[in-house]
Design a protein that fits this description.
46% of the residues lie in helices and 13% in strands. By secondary structure, the protein is α+β, with helices and mostly antiparallel strands. It has a two-stranded antiparallel ribbon with strand order 1-2. It has a two-stranded antiparallel sheet with strand order 3-4. A hairpin with a 6-residue loop joins strand 3 (148-154) and strand 4 (161-169). Helix 2 packs across helix 3 (27-39), helix 4 (67-81) runs antiparallel to helix 5 (86-102) and helix 4 crosses helix 6. The longest helix is centred in the middle third of the chain and has 17 residues, at 86-102. It starts with a helix and ends in an 11-residue tail after the last strand.
């Protein structure tokens, strides 16, 4: 990423020796980095007398993922989509759509392949229906602000609040409370 920025910001082409010196790496590593940029479809240009540059007007895509990073994101999104909170599920689907709009074609194919072949569903064996209620965003803000969260428990069979209330410090909170 730093190499792309260096090439974009330069007013003139840059030699391999200058790049190697700037990053304190070997010439061979610079050529490996150029190969990696080429594989990511970054339009690197070369003039044998003046060095390397990037096609004028090229912009770094808003999101650049390796397949490993994208797989990690997909597992997280699939986990969130498996929860019972409808709003949380809708938001996860929105994030997924935004990512699909900006990733290159090969990563889009990878993403769709993972989606078809991956099951991340803690409720698979419990049959939990999707429901309104619960507000992950209130909880996430409390976590961010290091505040405590007060829970009122509700009996699944009676459908009403049950004592006791519980105050939980957010530093100990994690996703995965199922209400069971």
């Amino acid at each position: 990423m730093k190499l792309i920025l260096m090439l974009q910001q330069a007013n003139q082409r840059i030699t391999v020796d200058k790049i190697a010196e700037n990053f304190d790496i070997s010439r061979r590593t610079v050529f490996r980095d150029f190969n990696a940029l080429s594989e990511m479809n970054v339009p690197v240009t070369h003039d044998r007398y003046n060095g390397y540059g990037i096609v004028r007007g090229y912009k770094i895509p808003p999101l650049m993922f390796t397949s490993k990073e994208l797989a990690t994101v997909m597992v997280g999104l699939n986990f969130v989509k498996s929860q019972v909170d409808k709003k949380l599920i809708e938001d996860a689907k929105g994030v997924e759509l935004k990512i699909k709009e900006v990733v290159p074609e090969d990563l889009l194919d990878f993403m769709e392949s993972l989606e078809e072949r991956t099951v991340v569903d803690p409720y698979l064996n419990f049959g939990a229906e999707k429901m309104e209620g619960g507000d992950w965003y209130v909880i996430s803000n409390a976590i961010s602000d290091n505040k405590s969260i007060k829970f009122n428990y509700r009996s699944k069979s009676r459908g009403r609040n049950q004592p006791p209330e519980k105050l939980i410090p957010t530093f100990s909170f994690f996703i995965g409370i199922t209400g069971m």
